[in-house]
Amino acid sequence: MTEGxxxxxxxxxxxxxxxxxxxxxxxxLRKRVKDGGxxxxxxxxxRAGVMEEGVLSHPATGVVPGGVISPVLAxxxxxxxxxxxxxxxxxxxxxxxxxxxxFADDCVIGCEVEADACKIMAVLxxxxxxxxxxxxxxxxxxxxxxxxxxxxxxGMGNGTCDFLGCTHDWTQxxxxxxxxxxxxxxxxxxxxKQALWRWCRTNRHAPLKDQYPRLSLKLRGHFQYDGIRGNxxxxxxxxxxxxxxxxxxxxxxxxxxxxxxxxxQQLLETYILPTPRIVHNx
Length: 282
Description:
- It is a single chain.
- Helix 5 packs parallel to helix 7 (232-250) and helix 6 (208-226) runs antiparallel to helix 7.
- This protein has helices at residues 22-30, 36-46, 70-90, 114-130, 186-202, 208-226, 232-250, 261-270, and strands at residues 7-14, 50-52, 55-57, 98-103, 106-111, 134-135, 141-144, 161-163, 166-172, 178-184.
- Strands 1, 4, 5, 6 and 7 form a five-stranded antiparallel β-sheet that branches. It has a three-stranded antiparallel β-sheet with strand order 8-9-10.
- By secondary structure, it is an alpha+beta fold.
Protein backbone atom coordinates (compact mmCIF):
# COMPACT_ATOMS: atom_id res chain seq x y z
CA MET A 1 0.00 0.00 0.00
CA THR A 2 1.66 3.23 -1.13
CA GLU A 3 0.86 6.54 0.47
CA GLY A 4 -0.25 8.28 -2.73
CA UNK A 5 -2.97 5.72 -3.48
CA UNK A 6 -6.45 7.10 -2.79
CA UNK A 7 -8.80 4.43 -4.17
CA UNK A 8 -8.83 0.67 -3.64
CA UNK A 9 -10.67 -1.93 -5.72
CA UNK A 10 -11.29 -5.06 -3.64
CA UNK A 11 -12.06 -8.15 -5.73
CA UNK A 12 -12.89 -11.71 -4.69
CA UNK A 13 -12.81 -14.26 -7.51
CA UNK A 14 -15.45 -17.00 -7.48
CA UNK A 15 -14.73 -20.49 -8.75
CA UNK A 16 -10.97 -20.19 -8.39
CA UNK A 17 -10.52 -23.95 -8.90
CA UNK A 18 -13.75 -25.42 -10.25
CA UNK A 19 -14.68 -22.89 -12.97
CA UNK A 20 -11.44 -22.68 -14.94
CA UNK A 21 -11.92 -23.03 -18.69
CA UNK A 22 -9.55 -25.85 -19.65
CA UNK A 23 -9.24 -24.57 -23.22
CA UNK A 24 -7.94 -21.25 -21.91
CA UNK A 25 -5.73 -23.09 -19.45
CA UNK A 26 -4.09 -25.11 -22.23
CA UNK A 27 -3.50 -21.91 -24.22
CA UNK A 28 -1.67 -20.40 -21.26
CA LEU A 29 0.35 -23.58 -20.66
CA ARG A 30 1.48 -23.74 -24.32
CA LYS A 31 3.29 -20.44 -23.78
CA ARG A 32 5.24 -21.87 -20.84
CA VAL A 33 5.49 -25.66 -21.22
CA LYS A 34 7.26 -27.25 -24.20
CA ASP A 35 8.04 -30.67 -22.73
CA GLY A 36 5.71 -33.37 -24.11
CA GLY A 37 6.21 -35.63 -21.10
CA UNK A 38 5.12 -32.89 -18.73
CA UNK A 39 2.12 -32.16 -20.99
CA UNK A 40 0.98 -35.79 -20.70
CA UNK A 41 1.43 -35.72 -16.93
CA UNK A 42 -0.67 -32.53 -16.63
CA UNK A 43 -3.36 -34.14 -18.79
CA UNK A 44 -3.49 -37.12 -16.43
CA UNK A 45 -3.85 -34.80 -13.45
CA UNK A 46 -6.75 -32.98 -15.09
CA ARG A 47 -8.51 -36.27 -15.95
CA ALA A 48 -7.95 -37.84 -12.53
CA GLY A 49 -11.48 -37.16 -11.30
CA VAL A 50 -12.87 -36.49 -7.82
CA MET A 51 -14.03 -39.07 -5.26
CA GLU A 52 -16.98 -37.85 -3.16
CA GLU A 53 -18.71 -40.24 -0.75
CA GLY A 54 -17.45 -43.23 -2.71
CA VAL A 55 -18.62 -41.90 -6.07
CA LEU A 56 -16.01 -41.02 -8.72
CA SER A 57 -16.85 -38.08 -10.99
CA HIS A 58 -14.91 -36.41 -13.81
CA PRO A 59 -15.68 -32.66 -14.02
CA ALA A 60 -15.42 -31.13 -17.48
CA THR A 61 -14.20 -27.76 -16.17
CA GLY A 62 -11.74 -26.59 -13.58
CA VAL A 63 -8.80 -28.32 -11.98
CA VAL A 64 -9.06 -31.30 -9.65
CA PRO A 65 -9.91 -30.10 -6.10
CA GLY A 66 -7.20 -31.25 -3.72
CA GLY A 67 -4.76 -32.09 -6.51
CA VAL A 68 -1.08 -31.40 -5.85
CA ILE A 69 -0.74 -29.31 -9.01
CA SER A 70 -4.16 -27.61 -8.88
CA PRO A 71 -2.95 -24.43 -7.08
CA VAL A 72 -0.11 -24.05 -9.60
CA LEU A 73 -2.39 -24.42 -12.63
CA ALA A 74 -5.03 -22.08 -11.18
CA UNK A 75 -2.40 -19.47 -10.33
CA UNK A 76 -0.87 -19.64 -13.83
CA UNK A 77 -4.26 -19.13 -15.44
CA UNK A 78 -5.12 -16.19 -13.22
CA UNK A 79 -1.67 -14.68 -13.63
CA UNK A 80 -2.22 -14.55 -17.39
CA UNK A 81 -5.80 -13.33 -17.05
CA UNK A 82 -5.25 -10.63 -14.44
CA UNK A 83 -1.66 -9.94 -13.36
CA UNK A 84 -0.02 -9.81 -16.79
CA UNK A 85 -3.01 -8.01 -18.31
CA UNK A 86 -2.96 -5.33 -15.60
CA UNK A 87 0.77 -4.74 -16.08
CA UNK A 88 0.75 -4.88 -19.89
CA UNK A 89 -2.49 -3.10 -20.78
CA UNK A 90 -3.94 -1.60 -17.63
CA UNK A 91 -1.13 0.50 -16.16
CA UNK A 92 -0.05 2.30 -19.38
CA UNK A 93 -3.63 3.57 -19.85
CA UNK A 94 -4.03 4.95 -16.34
CA UNK A 95 -3.88 8.67 -15.54
CA UNK A 96 -2.13 8.10 -12.21
CA UNK A 97 -0.16 5.48 -10.37
CA UNK A 98 -1.59 2.00 -9.98
CA UNK A 99 -0.60 -1.28 -8.31
CA UNK A 100 -1.94 -4.81 -8.00
CA UNK A 101 -1.57 -7.18 -5.04
CA UNK A 102 -3.00 -10.69 -5.36
CA PHE A 103 -2.85 -13.89 -3.30
CA ALA A 104 -4.77 -16.82 -4.84
CA ASP A 105 -8.35 -15.59 -5.38
CA ASP A 106 -8.09 -12.39 -3.30
CA CYS A 107 -6.71 -9.23 -4.88
CA VAL A 108 -6.64 -5.48 -4.37
CA ILE A 109 -5.92 -2.86 -7.01
CA GLY A 110 -4.84 0.58 -5.83
CA CYS A 111 -5.32 3.68 -7.96
CA GLU A 112 -4.28 7.28 -7.44
CA VAL A 113 -7.17 8.69 -9.53
CA GLU A 114 -10.83 7.84 -8.95
CA ALA A 115 -11.57 7.66 -12.71
CA ASP A 116 -8.99 4.88 -13.11
CA ALA A 117 -10.56 2.87 -10.28
CA CYS A 118 -14.04 3.25 -11.82
CA LYS A 119 -12.75 2.02 -15.19
CA ILE A 120 -11.18 -1.03 -13.54
CA MET A 121 -14.42 -1.83 -11.73
CA ALA A 122 -16.27 -1.73 -15.07
CA VAL A 123 -13.70 -3.85 -16.95
CA LEU A 124 -12.95 -6.55 -14.35
CA UNK A 125 -16.20 -8.56 -14.76
CA UNK A 126 -15.73 -8.68 -18.55
CA UNK A 127 -12.10 -9.69 -18.19
CA UNK A 128 -12.88 -12.56 -15.82
CA UNK A 129 -15.79 -13.71 -17.99
CA UNK A 130 -13.33 -14.42 -20.81
CA UNK A 131 -11.61 -16.98 -18.57
CA UNK A 132 -14.80 -18.51 -17.20
CA UNK A 133 -14.56 -16.69 -13.86
CA UNK A 134 -16.88 -14.33 -12.03
CA UNK A 135 -16.25 -11.92 -9.18
CA UNK A 136 -18.18 -12.06 -5.93
CA UNK A 137 -20.92 -9.39 -6.03
CA UNK A 138 -20.82 -8.56 -2.32
CA UNK A 139 -17.07 -8.92 -1.68
CA UNK A 140 -16.03 -6.74 -4.62
CA UNK A 141 -16.18 -3.02 -3.95
CA UNK A 142 -14.61 0.35 -4.67
CA UNK A 143 -13.28 1.89 -1.46
CA UNK A 144 -12.03 5.40 -0.84
CA UNK A 145 -8.64 5.02 0.82
CA UNK A 146 -7.46 8.61 0.80
CA UNK A 147 -5.15 9.94 3.45
CA UNK A 148 -7.08 12.08 5.99
CA UNK A 149 -6.28 15.78 6.05
CA UNK A 150 -5.89 18.19 8.95
CA UNK A 151 -6.84 17.07 12.44
CA UNK A 152 -9.70 14.84 11.32
CA UNK A 153 -10.14 11.87 13.71
CA UNK A 154 -8.93 8.51 12.43
CA GLY A 155 -11.57 6.46 10.61
CA MET A 156 -13.92 9.44 9.97
CA GLY A 157 -14.99 9.52 6.32
CA ASN A 158 -12.21 7.14 5.36
CA GLY A 159 -12.75 3.63 4.04
CA THR A 160 -11.00 0.49 5.20
CA CYS A 161 -9.63 -2.39 3.16
CA ASP A 162 -9.68 -6.05 4.26
CA PHE A 163 -7.00 -8.20 2.65
CA LEU A 164 -5.63 -11.61 3.72
CA GLY A 165 -7.28 -11.49 7.12
CA CYS A 166 -6.06 -7.99 8.00
CA THR A 167 -7.91 -4.68 8.00
CA HIS A 168 -5.94 -1.76 6.56
CA ASP A 169 -6.89 1.79 7.48
CA TRP A 170 -5.35 5.19 8.23
CA THR A 171 -4.50 6.18 11.78
CA GLN A 172 -2.22 8.65 13.53
CA UNK A 173 1.10 7.53 14.93
CA UNK A 174 2.50 8.67 18.28
CA UNK A 175 4.40 11.41 16.44
CA UNK A 176 1.11 12.72 14.99
CA UNK A 177 1.68 11.69 11.36
CA UNK A 178 -0.80 9.63 9.34
CA UNK A 179 0.23 6.00 8.79
CA UNK A 180 -1.48 2.87 7.47
CA UNK A 181 -2.34 0.52 10.31
CA UNK A 182 -2.92 -3.21 9.91
CA UNK A 183 -4.92 -5.17 12.43
CA UNK A 184 -6.67 -8.53 12.52
CA UNK A 185 -10.01 -8.40 10.71
CA UNK A 186 -13.10 -8.83 12.89
CA UNK A 187 -14.28 -11.97 11.08
CA UNK A 188 -10.89 -13.61 11.41
CA UNK A 189 -10.66 -12.66 15.09
CA UNK A 190 -14.10 -14.14 15.75
CA UNK A 191 -13.29 -17.37 13.87
CA UNK A 192 -10.03 -17.75 15.80
CA LYS A 193 -11.82 -17.39 19.13
CA GLN A 194 -14.51 -19.89 18.14
CA ALA A 195 -11.91 -22.41 16.96
CA LEU A 196 -9.95 -22.13 20.23
CA TRP A 197 -13.12 -22.53 22.29
CA ARG A 198 -14.18 -25.64 20.35
CA TRP A 199 -10.72 -27.18 20.62
CA CYS A 200 -10.53 -26.67 24.40
CA ARG A 201 -14.02 -28.14 24.80
CA THR A 202 -13.28 -31.19 22.62
CA ASN A 203 -9.90 -31.95 24.21
CA ARG A 204 -10.70 -31.07 27.84
CA HIS A 205 -10.35 -34.71 28.99
CA ALA A 206 -6.91 -35.18 27.39
CA PRO A 207 -3.85 -35.11 29.70
CA LEU A 208 -2.32 -31.69 30.24
CA LYS A 209 1.00 -32.89 28.81
CA ASP A 210 -0.84 -33.53 25.52
CA GLN A 211 -3.00 -30.40 25.54
CA TYR A 212 -0.18 -27.97 26.29
CA PRO A 213 2.09 -28.53 23.21
CA ARG A 214 -0.82 -28.44 20.77
CA LEU A 215 -2.32 -25.30 22.33
CA SER A 216 1.10 -23.64 22.30
CA LEU A 217 1.50 -24.53 18.62
CA LYS A 218 -1.83 -22.90 17.79
CA LEU A 219 -0.82 -19.69 19.58
CA ARG A 220 2.60 -19.56 17.91
CA GLY A 221 0.97 -19.97 14.51
CA HIS A 222 -1.40 -17.08 15.23
CA PHE A 223 1.43 -14.85 16.45
CA GLN A 224 3.54 -15.65 13.38
CA TYR A 225 0.76 -14.45 11.06
CA ASP A 226 -0.91 -11.65 13.03
CA GLY A 227 2.09 -10.40 14.97
CA ILE A 228 2.29 -7.19 12.92
CA ARG A 229 3.41 -3.82 14.22
CA GLY A 230 0.33 -1.95 15.43
CA ASN A 231 -1.64 -5.16 16.06
CA UNK A 232 -0.20 -6.07 19.45
CA UNK A 233 -3.44 -5.34 21.35
CA UNK A 234 -5.46 -7.86 19.32
CA UNK A 235 -2.66 -10.42 19.63
CA UNK A 236 -2.92 -10.02 23.40
CA UNK A 237 -6.71 -10.46 23.15
CA UNK A 238 -6.21 -13.92 21.62
CA UNK A 239 -3.67 -14.81 24.31
CA UNK A 240 -6.01 -13.82 27.15
CA UNK A 241 -8.97 -15.55 25.47
CA UNK A 242 -6.95 -18.78 25.19
CA UNK A 243 -6.24 -18.71 28.91
CA UNK A 244 -9.91 -18.06 29.63
CA UNK A 245 -11.15 -20.90 27.39
CA UNK A 246 -8.55 -23.35 28.71
CA UNK A 247 -9.38 -22.67 32.36
CA UNK A 248 -13.14 -22.82 31.67
CA UNK A 249 -13.04 -26.29 30.09
CA UNK A 250 -10.45 -27.69 32.46
CA UNK A 251 -12.83 -26.73 35.26
CA UNK A 252 -15.55 -28.88 33.64
CA UNK A 253 -13.66 -32.12 33.47
CA UNK A 254 -15.60 -33.35 36.50
CA UNK A 255 -18.32 -31.92 38.69
CA UNK A 256 -15.93 -31.14 41.59
CA UNK A 257 -12.84 -30.11 39.59
CA UNK A 258 -13.43 -26.37 39.26
CA UNK A 259 -10.20 -24.39 38.87
CA UNK A 260 -10.04 -20.86 40.25
CA UNK A 261 -7.84 -18.19 38.75
CA UNK A 262 -5.22 -18.51 41.53
CA UNK A 263 -4.89 -22.25 40.97
CA UNK A 264 -4.84 -21.71 37.22
CA GLN A 265 -2.02 -19.15 37.54
CA GLN A 266 0.02 -21.76 39.42
CA LEU A 267 -0.67 -24.21 36.60
CA LEU A 268 0.56 -21.64 34.06
CA GLU A 269 3.87 -21.43 35.91
CA THR A 270 4.47 -25.04 34.82
CA TYR A 271 2.70 -24.93 31.44
CA ILE A 272 3.85 -21.53 30.18
CA LEU A 273 1.90 -20.45 27.11
CA PRO A 274 3.77 -18.51 24.36
CA THR A 275 4.08 -14.79 25.03
CA PRO A 276 2.48 -12.39 22.51
CA ARG A 277 5.07 -10.63 20.38
CA ILE A 278 5.51 -8.62 17.21
CA VAL A 279 7.06 -10.71 14.45
CA HIS A 280 6.62 -8.50 11.37
CA ASN A 281 7.74 -4.86 11.49
CA UNK A 282 5.94 -3.65 8.35
